[in-house]
Specification:
mainly beta, 4-stranded mixed sheet, 4-stranded antiparallel sheet, 246 residues, Thrombin, subunit H, 14 strands
């Protein structure tokens, strides 16, 4: 199984984070201060993912294979994606008004891509291994963790290639690869796993570390997400810069 976990970036030599802290205010907002325009509800589906590119264009996704598309700042169009009604599209990323990538979570790990505003879709990533669970696809400005176990080099190579071509993984602040325990079992690959991944990731020009002990191995680190962190690829080190629990 290929596991994807997003952390926060650091953009000094060890990638110092510039992510803004969220501020929650308890003071109520007076109704007169609100400028709200009601819109017609177009679906009863539970919406899980939302990406607004600007005040005119947006993409949303949800249960039952639901995809929504907005191009005029007001009206959302419901898009039916044939063959995917049984899936939960937990996340969606819009590149522009025509191009988007939707991600299915759960027992079927799938990424589908449209380049014509949702009229047609192409599946660009598939993983049906037991335990697969994709939780997000926006990698820009983040430290990304990738790991696998008991898998063949060519399959891991293919999955990472699809992520590079189908998502914004190229814009990650850095990538940390797990130990990938017992990969290439029972075969002599043309390339070792780390050499194959190096061929894919070195051209990105971002920090990449290999062999951190996390994921599906006996002695593993538990890595929280959504907090500031730092990595140093030269030292093959990773550091959390703030507490994971408040």
């Amino acid at each position: 199984m290929l596991a994807l976990i997003s952390g926060c970036q650091d953009n000094t030599k060890t990638l110092q984070s510039d992510i803004k802290e969220a501020v929650f205010k308890a003071e109520p907002i007076a109704p007169d201060d609100l400028n709200v325009t009601p819109i017609e509800r177009v679906t009863s589906a539970h919406i899980r993912g939302l990406h607004l590119l600007n005040d005119q264009t947006g993409w949303a996704s949800g249960v039952g294979g639901t995809v929504l598309h907005m191009t005029n700042g007001v009206q959302w169009e419901v898009i039916e994606v044939p063959g995917y009604a049984h899936l939960d599209f937990r996340d969606i990323y819009g590149f522009d008004a025509l191009t988007a990538l939707a991600m299915a979570a759960g027992e079927e790990g799938r990424l589908i891509r449209t380049e014509d505003g949702g009229k047609t879709w192409t599946e660009v990533y598939t993983n049906l291994e037991e335990g697969i669970f994709l939780d997000g696809i926006d990698f820009e400005g983040k430290i990304v963790f990738l790991e696998d176990v008991e898998e063949k080099t060519y399959r891991v190579d293919k999955m990472v290639y699809h992520l590079l071509t189908g998502t914004n993984l190229k814009k990650a602040a850095g990538i940390i690869l797990g130990a990938c325990d017992e990969c290439n079992v029972g075969e002599a690959p043309t390339l070792s796993l780390n050499v194959a991944l190096d061929d894919l990731l070195r051209p990105l020009g971002i920090p990449v570390s290999y062999g951190l002990a996390f994921g599906h191995i006996k002695r593993m680190l538990t890595i929280p997400t959504g907090i500031r962190a730092a990595m140093d690829a030269d030292k093959n080190s990773f550091e959390l810069l703030e507490a994971a629990v408040i």
